[in-house]
Specification:
There is one protein chain. By secondary structure, this protein is an all-beta fold. Helix content is 0%, strand content 25%. The chain is built from no helices and five strands.
Length: 100
């Protein structure tokens, strides 16, 4: 969590021919800690040496969140609120002179 590896290990995957795929069950995710985000990083690597790469060579990888990130809540307004050279849209306020 927060850039630290919590756990690593190998997953059991059946032998696959070119173009085949398999679903692999991931272990239970680690317990959430102080609102830190957790992501799975899954790498597919060669189990044995081949003519084009050594055993352990990574042939693909992916990363995705263990749990969905909570979306911020913004209350809806009837429309933009304009003031003296400022525009407020939801939680953001923009200065008409600088655009920020």
């Amino acid at each position: 969590m927060d850039g630290e590896t919590v756990e690593s290990g190998a997953l059991t995957v059946p032998s696959l021919a070119p173009g085949e795929s398999a679903d692999v069950k991931l272990p239970e995710p680690p317990a959430e800690s102080d609102g830190a985000e957790s992501h799975w990083t899954v790498r597919a690597s060669l189990a044995a040496d081949t003519a084009w790469g050594p055993a352990g060579h990574v042939v693909g990888w992916g990363q995705f969140p263990v749990t969905a990130r909570p979306l911020p809540s913004v209350s809806a307004l009837a429309g933009p609120v304009t003031g003296e050279r400022r525009i407020t849209l939801g939680p953001a306020t923009f200065d008409a002179r600088t655009g920020s």
